[in-house]
Design goal:
Layout: H1 2-9, H2 14-35, H3 45-55, H4 66-91, H5 102-109, H6 111-122, H7 126-156, H8 163-173, H9 180-196, H10 208-211, H11 221-246, H12 256-276, H13 283-306
Length: about 300
């Protein structure tokens, strides 16, 4: 029991994922600033933002459901932390009772998005309701190609749904990114992760210039601080999942530590460059993009996996 609590609260869970996710958030903002010819924030800016929000007053919505509104970020944090634990344990090669069942990971990864929707609806704000509606449509759009890519990976790995075994197959036979099916799958899952993180061009659920932060419009103080921490955790967890599925996982020994850091930074760099070189799309365009093009790429990946390419 003590070991499980340590996994959840310290490593690789809440504390570890929160700190490293905050660093990756800083890296994302720094690269964004450089692309825009700006200096960018200092290294500890994500920590400053989190602490500053914790110290501010939390304003409850007048026409919503205060209890649901307050519980939503708590459940989002619990879901993000569980996702970090369930993904990072097998990706880092840590021996535990859980070795990375992809079915469990799929369900847990959806908890933060669902709680965003519930929190937005519970605020009673019409703009938050618009953001929640967009988030629902976005989930329905990217979830199918995400599942199809996982199907392709499962086929390439000998029909196993165990993330650790998928990584072991890559260590023995070569990383999935080195195959044609892996390239199509990587492009697809990168776009899906972009949408899961709510980043441009798929940030229409928040869309500061259109609906004033949408689902987050009524969030303030500690509520917004927890949501920000959830974003930090997911900013590590999802790139780590991509590394596990396509780059033979991550290792914490010797020179492999450096390679592991570079793998994660590479994925985050691609995510950052995508959001800095594309304008926000409308929800209709996003749905068409995922339902047509990303599903097509995922199906091609499956076909190529079946024929062994």
């Amino acid at each position: 029991m003590t070991k499980e609590i340590f996994y959840f609260l310290v490593f690789p869970g809440l504390l570890f994922a929160g700190v490293l996710g905050g660093f990756l958030s800083w890296f994302d903002r720094k690269i964004t600033a450089r692309v825009q010819f700006r200096q960018g924030p200092p290294l500890f800016q994500p920590l400053y933002d989190f602490v500053k929000l914790l110290a501010k007053e939390t304003i409850l919505p007048k026409y919503g459901s205060p209890l649901t509104f307050l519980l939503s970020p708590v459940f989002a944090l619990a879901g993000a932390t569980l996702a970090a634990v369930f993904i990072l344990l097998p990706v880092l090669g840590i021996e535990s009772g859980f070795s990375g069942d992809l079915l469990v990971i799929i369900y847990v990864l959806n908890i933060p998005s669902v709680t965003y929707i519930i929190g937005g609806l519970a605020s009673g704000n019409p703009l938050a309701a618009v953001g929640s509606s967009r988030e629902i449509k976005l989930i329905l759009s990217y979830e199918l190609p995400f599942l199809l890519v996982l199907t392709s990976i499962i086929i390439k790995s000998g029909m196993t749904i165990n993330l650790r075994e998928i990584i072991d197959v890559q260590i023995a036979q070569g990383a999935n990114i080195g195959s044609l099916s892996g390239i199509f799958g990587f492009i697809t899952i990168l776009m899906c992760v972009q949408a899961k993180l709510g980043l441009v061009p798929f940030d229409m659920a928040e869309a500061e210039g259109e609906i004033c932060d949408g689902i987050m419009i009524e969030s303030s103080g500690s509520v917004l601080a927890i949501y920000k921490l959830v974003k930090y955790i997911m900013f590590l967890t999802l790139p780590a999942l991509i590394c596990g599925l396509f780059f033979s996982g991550l290792e914490l020994s010797g020179i492999n530590i450096l390679w592991s850091i570079l793998k994660v930074l590479l994925v985050v760099l691609l995510i950052t460059l995508i959001r800095n070189t594309n304008p926000r799309v409308r929800i209709k365009q996003a749905m068409r993009f995922f339902w047509v093009w990303m599903n097509l790429f995922a199906v091609i990946s499956i076909i190529l996996s079946i024929i062994g390419v």
